[in-house]
Amino acid sequence: MDQIKIGAFIQKTRKARNLTQRDLAERLGISDKTVSKWETGSGLPEVGLMLPLCEQLGISVNELLSGESLDGTQYRRRAEENMVRLVREGQDAKKLRAVCLGINAVTMFAGIALILVAGLAEIPLWLRIVLITIAVLIAAGGIALACIIDREAGVFECPVCGRQFVPTMKAYIGGMHTLRKRRLACPHCGKTSWCRRIARSE
Length: 202
Ligand SMILES: [Zn+2]
Known about the structure:
This protein is of the alpha+beta class. It has eight helices and four strands; from the N terminus they run H-H-H-H-H-H-H-E-E-H-E-E.
């Protein structure tokens, strides 16, 4: 998706309706910072907000995703392009998750193997220390990389207001978590709760 183009289009249609960023934010029950983020192209509206947003702007989701007004002949072709793009982005997210699991497995294996060698083999102390240091570095690097990829691949759903969001890296790393849930502050309603992870394509 061309976020810059979509953002400019949101701004143009909002202004054409004589709405300020705050007006639009209030009608959607979100912060005006979120609207500003969309319009500058640094974020796309969450799936759950697309229909209400389009309703407020008097445009179709197809036009929103295309970042422009569409006439009859363009409309269908664009709808099909947008659909293919959405499916592809969903597939990419799934692939990223798989890569992330792979990195975790390799990291864990390499770390355990090095620590076993360091602990069991008849080697000098300095080599033992070097091996353990390398194991710790591999583990830290792998976890950091997996975190970055993992965060990119998923969005979270707030159980209080039901809206979706991508947490900041700081909140993501700092939050307590289980396999499917993470304790995060929702940027829409501000409540901190156990948010369910959902794939970006859902
Ligand atoms: Zn919420």
